Structure formats: C-alpha cells, structure tokens
Amino acid sequence: MEANTKQEQTQEQHTALKRTFIIGDEWLYYKFYTGPKTADLILTEMIKPITEQLLANRLIDYWFFIRYADPKLHTRVRFHIPDAKNMTPVILAVRSSAAWFIQHNLLAKIQVDTYEREVERYGIHSMDLAEKIFFFDSKMIVDMLSLIEGDEGERIRWLFALRAVESMLEDFQFDMQQRFDQVTMLRENFGREFNMNRGLKDQMEKKFRANRPQINELMDRSNDEVSEMYPLFQLLTQKSAAVKPFVKEILDLNQNNQLQVPLNDLLASYSHMMINRLFKSKQRLHELVVYDFLHRYYKSEIARQKYAKINIEKKKKKEEEKKKKKEKEKKE
Q1: Both ends of the chain: CA-CA distance in Å?
Q2: Looking at the domain assignment, is residue 199 inside a domain?
Q3: Torsion angles phi and psi, residue 62, rounded to 5
Q4: What's the burial of 168, exposed, middle or buried (CB within 10 Å: 0-12/13-18/19+)?
Q5: Boundaries of domain holding 97
Q6: Are 261 and 123 in contact (CB under 8 A)?
Q7: Where residue 77 sits, what CATH number does that domain have?
Q8: Mind listing the pLDDT tens digit for each residue in 92-148?
Q9: Residues 293 and 162 sit within 8 Å (Cβ to Cβ)
Q10: Which long-range contacts (CB under 8 A, 24 or more apart) does 238-246 make?
Q11: Does residue 181 sit in the same domain as residue 283?
Q12: What 3-state class would DSSP assign to 280?
C-alpha cells in the first residue's frame, strides 16, 4: 500500500512539473546560428550585454545557454520571464540587439523554438535547481570569455576548465577520493566513446606531463592571488557563493533519498554542460582531456598525501621512541 502511495505521488509530481514551454510561456527559447569562430563574439558582445540589461530591468530573473549543432552550429539561449507582460519587451530587446549582428553577417539565422525540459536527466525535484545553477554557470562563462583572447586565451581556456570542474566538485563537498572516483568514471565513459586505446592514452599522458608544472600551479590555491588567472578564479568564487543555496537543496534531497537521479550522474551532467559552454568546438573531446588530466592529477595527489601521512606517522613514532629512551635513561 505504501509503495502504491509513493508511486502515485511520483506520478502527481510528473504531472505537476511543467515540461514543455512554447513562446508566450515563462521560458523564451532562442537559437542563434553562427560559426565556431564567431560564437564567442555573439556570447560576449551580444548575449552578455543584453542579459545584463534584461536582468537589471527585471524583465527576466535568470537565463542560460548551451552550444549545439542540428547539424548547423548554434547557441541556444533560454530566458526565464516570470511575468507574462514582459514577454514583448524581451522579444523587442533581443531583436534590437541582434539586428546589428545580422546586418554584419555575424549571425546567419535566429529561431524561436519549444523548450523541452530534460526532467529524466535532472530529476523532478531538482529540475528548477539545475536551471538556476546553469544560469550562474552561463554568467560566469560569458564573463570569463570576455577576459580572454587569441592563442593565450585558448591556453587559459583549457586550464580554466580543469579548475572549474574542481571547483564544482568542491561545491558539492566531494573529498579528494570522491573527486578522483567521479572523474575516473567520466574518463572511462568518454574513453569508450573515443575508443581510447594505448596510443591515445600515451598521447594524453605525454601532454599531461608537458603541462604538469602549469597544472600543479593552477590547482594550488596558495598561488591564486599572484596568478595571471586570478580574475578568473574570482569568477569561480562568485559562482560558488551564488549557487550555494541550490547546492544545499540538492544535497538535502540526496540525503533524504528524494533526488531521483544519482548525485554522481547529476554532477556528470553539470560538468558536461559547463564544458559544453566553455569550448567553441569539439567539446566532447575537450571533455575527455579534462577528465583525463584531472584523473592523473588526483591520482598523484592521493599518492602524495598518503606518502606524506606515512612520513608524519614515521616521524611521530621516532619521536615517541626517542622520548621513551630518554625517560628510560633518566630512570637508570
């Protein structure tokens, strides 16, 4: 009887949670078609200022974007409009902002579409929490992209990806072993997708070793304030503070067995979407490299910490033996 009641409650929740949004509903969904070279420009020079304006004028309360291909490359942007009377002002603001980019052939096409929530992927209770986390993630990334450029920017981009995934796992209170387990699972999943053989593993290991000093410096928080990437680290700190209440709700749901999606799977989706937003193209290949590098870094850190602990215990034991010896000599 109790099982039937729980099943009925779940069915009611599925019915109550709105899944599909068309134009005129609270979610307004645009597709901005552009090439990979201009995608970041659209994000930093069009999407960033228009979303800041819409938020300041309280026409929207949050938004998020993803990169996609159908098969043509485009950026998908979803605006959450809590008050229906603001729908027209938002549409007009987007039209006004996009006009210049259309005229200068930086946007090939704009399309409004239906937003279908991925409820099975993110869970009934945590769907809206995921959307709010995506908002702060999107904001962080467009702010980050506006601070980098050129070849140096590309170097910083993949380093930032490592630190961003690390920061997210830390937000969800994963310890070092849990972080290692998470990225190892994801590395294996993406490795199967790319048929990762011995040759590819050796290639990534070689690249990791070549960049090891940079990675160690990046992951050492004591270096933050003197790092060239300090302004970007501040963006991560701001995001962590902003998503804290939503993270707490998700952890509480998990604690009470109400999350409906395993926490590891949920965080896999979060990190996947974050890397999707961060890279202009070949996002899944970049994702494999990010997880591979973090796997190698965490593995070495766990070994280093274990070795350090053994040395501390040895030193402590020697000091105790020395102390006992002195006490024995005094008695004699």
Answers
A1: 77
A2: yes
A3: -165, 170
A4: buried
A5: 21-116
A6: yes
A7: 3.30.70.100
A8: 999 999 999 999 999 999 999 999 999 999 999 999 999 999 999 999 999 999 999
A9: yes
A10: 238/140, 239/136, 239/137, 239/139, 239/140, 239/167, 240/167, 240/170, 240/171, 242/136, 243/132, 243/133, 243/136, 243/137, 243/171, 244/171, 246/129, 246/132, 246/133
A11: yes
A12: coil
Between residues 226 and 10, the one the model is more confident about: 226
Place of tokens 């009925």: 8
Residue 236 in tokens: 């991560």
Our count of domains for the chain comes to 2
Q: Which of 116, 148, 180 is the last residue of a domain?
A: 116
User: Side chain identity at 302, as an amino acid letter?
Assistant: I
**Same domain? 76 vs 203:** no
Dump pLDDT digits (tens) for 238-255: 999 999 999 999 999 999
Answer whether the bond into residue 213 is a cis peptide, omega within 30°: no
Q: Which residues have CB under 8 Å from 270's CB, separation 6+?
A: 130, 133, 137, 168
* 252, two tokens: 């509480």
Q: How far apart are CA 39 and CA 281, in angstroms?
A: 10
Token look-up 């949004």 returns: 21
